[in-house]
Amino acid sequence: MKRKPAAKPKTRVRFLWDDRTQSVLAYFPTLFHRHDYEESLHLCYSHVGQHGPCSPWFARLLRPATRREYAGLYAELQSIGYLLKPERIKPYPQCHHGWSLA
After folding, report:
1. Concatenated DSSP letters for the chain?
2. How is the chain split into domains, by residue range?
């Protein structure tokens, strides 16, 4: 009897929208950037720039992207071999400490 090969696990991803740049970002909450030995920067992916580091603090400043907003990036990630498990998250409350990305 043949055994089925083990299914490749899906990668958790949060699609976030940056209002400043009008672009979507894939934030991987369980993957760390390879050059971050303190494991404080997570792996992110965008159409422009591709893979890069992203701090959880920065990710909290962005709102969850809609399915329509992240459809293209989702397809791009699948085309390079990712099996994705999108996570729906609630938006973080707005920060009232005077911080700004502008």
Report:
1. -PPPPPPPPPEEEEEEEETTTTEEEEEEEEEE-TT-TTS-SEEEEETTTEEEEE-HHHHHTSEEPPHHHHHHHHHHHHHTT--EEE---PPPPPP-SS----
2. 11-86
